[in-house]
């Protein structure tokens, strides 16, 4: 006889709930049975257990007809599944199902007559789910060529008579299994999970996750080395994938980690199941029936093989926090002991308890449905002290969630608690209570239920993700915003894989519509999706509630690709919420000096970044260069610049003989102008840019200080639409053609330049001048092409040869790339925090 140890495989209800899944299970068992001895444990098919509970309930109400109709549903599922796999034996298998369910029908009849369903009767009713599935699975396996035999777990697993959650007599169970296993090698044993029997043969059930427990007990009893739980996920994930889209299956865990996770409520594991496995050194694998080649999660004595130790985040929801505090300090009180004993006595599970060092207060976390019972038990225990006002009235907080980080040797890691709490604090999650397990494998805290998702996502990112998550709320989906979305879409994978930055667009707004999803908006078709949102009145809408959601996400950034006036109020709200801002919009920086200073001070006060590199010459590194000059102690003596990509382009077109009206229209079409090109042609846009630069030098100037000569005279119809304005430009074509002719004959080029001369501070001459000039060939800026800009810095150190920054100064794609670079600067600066 072979001495190869057994493997135990357990299949849950969903794995055997439908013909395709059942077929996969039969194939899997067939394949593994060829490799070595195998024992199979199976749950009831699909929702059968719920249906049995329903049938028992109806029978108890005297509704036999309804109850038998539910049995019909159960029979139908079993027959359909069996017939789909063995069509040739449809009738025989249907008869088999009928004969298996006949005693159930009789039992329900009895219950309906007495209108009483005792705990033993209920266990008996529930047992039919597993009995049917195990019997059918054994028959279907044999028919498929894998010799299998139904083994009644009630003859093997011995329990006490606590019906509903019976306690197993491990020693007697082991004895029976050892005696029985000798005959198991020739034919795969198929055992019903979840059910067992008292020593006198009355059917019992094992409670929650009972089938996993059966598998662990069987493995222990027959000396198996591994239990595989086949389910519908790829393994135990680092966090609940419904809450965290980045959660991933963990390859290896130690038994200790598994037990810890089971203890804090991870649905897939139960402490009862872990104990026989740990005692007997049996590995537990969690695998997906639909992906049988995926290794899933292996839980054993060794744990991680590759040094990777991901932190699993477990949540237990629907809890209540009870705070009990003594008014007067006394070492006689033994508050903690009494409260815990009272709760134990009342049968209330305590998920977490923390006591103050002096024993004056205790906080306990209990299941929410047990809150009344828990409260009653504690108040009863402390009746006299409460009456004498020695104890504060109980403080109750509900619903709350218990969030636990589990990782081997966590206690030896540096600053684990600090990282945990600061990650939660950074997104505004209040920790209501906390505890670090003595095992050094876990640390737990209690948060409000409303904070569950954000708390899990944040801690998961802080502990498990190699990449930095960045959450973008984009305002504006026009020339720049639209290009930015396209660039994020194109760069997303590369940024994550190569640079460790995971950009997620969580919000998008235009002037009248907003879309927001904290989990991230799919970028494909996003603008079309926004266009379908019901528009609202821009005058009355507020984006502050969106900021309240944004602030709770990792590295939140408000990205302003609008030309909106008054948007600084939103920036201020963002800064106050710890949200960074990246803006292409010049208007907030051209506010009166005191307002602009107040805005920047607000960002500094809240330790957030405000980057606006693209406000001066699109993606050209102008502001950064200037800041570096100033930071390194250089003195800027003069800045001369062609700061308008659109007006520069128009000048070049005019010099090439294109009429003014046509060149302005082309500049707009190419995305060089402001949404309203009058902003460019009036010189206001250049004046704002020059002002932004002058202020970077610390000069407290305002727009009214700029000596401005427009490129095109003021529109006589300022309220007219952009189209009307563009149309009206035709009237100026001849005058501009004349001007160009004069330039040509003088050998000069038409340009629109800005000049910032700090030496004029304190004199009658303007520090900033903006206006059209005719410059000679060979002079800086004369040879600009298309929408090129240039900025020339003459400084103490760059005196003979000014430092020149030159390149494309306008356009959606280049500007968007500058905005993206600002976003990446923030995320890089925050890495690891
Ligand atoms: N086009 C370029 O080459 C450059 C543009 N910029 C700046 O970028 C900003 C955007 O320019 P474009 O994309 O060309 O403009 P655009 O007119 O093409 O797009 C503006 C977008 O902002 C939206 N919007 C307006 N008010 C809003 C509000 N209060 N909230 C949310 N969305 C709002 C509009 O619905 C539109 O989607 C402007 O401030 C411009 O000065 C900066 C550097 C270069
Ligand atoms: N309209 C602007 C765009 C960049 O700020 C320009 O023409 O330069």
TrEMBL record:
The keyword NAD belongs to this UniProt entry's keyword annotation: yes
Keyword Nucleotide-binding among UniProt keywords: yes
Family matches, as InterPro entries: AceGlu_kinase-like_sf, ACT-like_dom_sf, ACT_Aspartokinase, AK-HD, Asp/Glu/Uridylate_kinase, Asp/hSer_DH_NAD-bd, Asp_kinase, Aspartate_kinase_CS
Keywords: Amino-acid biosynthesis, ATP-binding, Kinase, Lysine biosynthesis, Metal-binding, Methionine biosynthesis, Multifunctional enzyme, NAD, NADP, Nucleotide-binding, Oxidoreductase, Sodium, Threonine biosynthesis, Transferase
Pathway noted in the entry: Amino-acid biosynthesis; L-threonine biosynthesis; L-threonine from L-aspartate: step 1/5; Amino-acid biosynthesis; L-lysine biosynthesis via DAP pathway; (S)-tetrahydrodipicolinate from L-aspartate: step 1/4; Amino-acid biosynthesis; L-threonine biosynthesis; L-threonine from L-aspartate: step 3/5; Amino-acid biosynthesis; L-methionine biosynthesis via de novo pathway; L-homoserine from L-aspartate: step 3/3
Record-annotated Homoserine dehydrogenase catalytic domain positions: 621-824
Main function: Bifunctional aspartate kinase and homoserine dehydrogenase that catalyzes the first and the third steps toward the synthesis of lysine, methionine and threonine from aspartate.
Protein name: Bifunctional aspartate kinase/homoserine dehydrogenase I
Species the sequence originates in: Archangium minus
High-level lineage: Bacteria, Pseudomonadati, Myxococcota, Myxococcia, Myxococcales
């Amino acid at each position: 006889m072979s001495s190869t140890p057994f493997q135990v495989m357990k299949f849950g209800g969903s794995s055997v709930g439908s013909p395709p899944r059942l077929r996969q299970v039969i194939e899997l068992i067939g394949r593994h049975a060829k490799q070595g001895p195998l024992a199979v444990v199976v749950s009831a098919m699909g929702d059968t257990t719920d249906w049995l509970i329903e049938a028992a309930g109806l029978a108890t109400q005297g509704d036999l007809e309804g109850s038998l109709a539910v049995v019909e549903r159960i029979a139908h599922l079993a027959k359909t599944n069996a017939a789909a796999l063995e069509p040739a034996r449809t009738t025989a298998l249907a008869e088999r199902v009928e004969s298996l369910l006949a005693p159930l029908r009789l039992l329900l009849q009895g219950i309906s007559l007495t209108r009483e369903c005792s705990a033993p009767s209920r266990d008996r009713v529930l047992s039919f789910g597993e009995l049917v599935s195990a019997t059918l699975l054994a028959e279907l396996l044999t028919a498929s060529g894998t010799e299998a035999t139904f083994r009644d777990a009630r003859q093997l697993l011995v329990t006490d008579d606590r019906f509903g959650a019976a306690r197993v007599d491990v020693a007697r169970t082991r004895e029976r299994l050892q005696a029985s296993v000798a005959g198991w090698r020739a034919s795969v044993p198929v055992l019903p999970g979840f059910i067992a029997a008292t020593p006198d043969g009355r059917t019992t059930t094992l409670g929650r996750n009972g089938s996993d427990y059966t598998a662990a007990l069987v493995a222990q009893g027959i000396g198996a080395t591994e239990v595989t739980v086949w389910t519908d996920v790829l393994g135990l994930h680092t966090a609940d994938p419904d809450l965290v889209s980045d959660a991933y299956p963990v390859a290896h865990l130690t038994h200790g980690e598994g037990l810890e996770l089971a203890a804090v409520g991870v649905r897939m594991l139960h402490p009862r199941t872990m104990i026989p496995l740990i005692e007997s050194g049996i590995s537990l694998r969690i695998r997906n029936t639909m992906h049988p080649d995926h290794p899933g999660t292996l839980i054993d004595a060794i744990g991680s093989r590759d040094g990777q130790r991901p932190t699993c985040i477990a949540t237990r929801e629907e809890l209540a926090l009870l705070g009990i505090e003594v008014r007067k300090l006394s070492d006689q009180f033994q508050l903690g002991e009494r409260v815990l004993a009272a709760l134990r006595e009342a049968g209330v599970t305590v998920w977490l308890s923390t006591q103050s060092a002096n024993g004056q207060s205790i906080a306990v976390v209990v299941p929410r449905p047990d809150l009344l019972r828990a409260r009653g038990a504690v108040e009863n225990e402390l009746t006299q002290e409460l009456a004498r006002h020695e104890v504060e009235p109980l403080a109750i907080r509900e619903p709350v969630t218990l969030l636990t980080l589990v990782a081997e040797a966590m206690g030896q890691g540096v600053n684990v608690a600090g990282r945990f709490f600061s990650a939660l604090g950074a997104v505004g999650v209040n920790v209501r209570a906390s505890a670090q397990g003595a095992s050094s494998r876990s640390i737990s805290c209690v948060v409000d239920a409303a904070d569950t998702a954000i708390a899990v996502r944040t801690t998961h990112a802080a502990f498990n993700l190699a990449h930095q998550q960045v959450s973008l709320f984009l305002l504006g989906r026009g020339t720049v915003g639209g290009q930015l979305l396209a660039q994020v879409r194109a760069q997303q994978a590369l940024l994550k894989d190569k640079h460790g930055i995971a950009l997620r667009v969580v919000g998008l707004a235009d002037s009248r519509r907003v879309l927001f999803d904290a989990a991230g908006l799919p970028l494909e078709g996003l603008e079309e999706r926004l266009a379908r949102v019901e528009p609202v009145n821009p005058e009355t809408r507020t984006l502050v509630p969106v900021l309240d959601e944004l602030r709770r996400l990792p590295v939140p950034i408000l990205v302003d690709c609008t030309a909106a006036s008054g948007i600084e109020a939103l920036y201020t709200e963002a800064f106050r919420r710890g949200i960074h801002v990246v803006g292409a919009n010049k208007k907030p920086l051209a506010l009166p000096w005191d307002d602009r200073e107040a805005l920047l001070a607000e960002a500094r006060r809240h330790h957030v970044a405000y980057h606006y590199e693209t406000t001066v010459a699109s993606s050209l590194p102008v502001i950064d260069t200037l800041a570096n000059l100033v930071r390194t102690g250089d003195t800027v003596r003069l800045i001369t610049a062609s700061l308008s990509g659109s007006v520069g382009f128009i000048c070049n077109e005019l010099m090439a003989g294109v009429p003014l009206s046509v060149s302005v229209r082309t500049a707009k079409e190419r995305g060089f102008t402001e949404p309203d090109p009058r902003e460019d042609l009036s010189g206001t846009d250049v004046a704002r840019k020059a002002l932004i630069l002058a202020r970077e030098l610390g000069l407290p100037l305002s727009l009214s200080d700029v000596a401005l000569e427009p490129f095109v005279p003021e529109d006589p119809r300022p309220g007219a639409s952009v189209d009307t304005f563009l149309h009206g430009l035709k009237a100026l074509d001849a005058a501009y053609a004349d001007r160009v002719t004069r330039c040509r004959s003088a050998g000069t080029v038409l340009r629109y330049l800005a000049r910032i001369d700090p030496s004029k501070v304190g004199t009658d001459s303007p520090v900033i001048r903006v206006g059209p000039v005719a410059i000679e060939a060979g002079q800086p800026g004369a040879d600009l092409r298309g929408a090129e800009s240039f900025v020339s810095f003459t400084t103490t150190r760059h005196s003979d040869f000014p430092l020149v920054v030159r390149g494309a100064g306008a356009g959606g794609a280049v500007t968007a790339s500058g905005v993206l670079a600002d976003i990446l600067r923030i995320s890089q600066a925050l890495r690891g925090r």
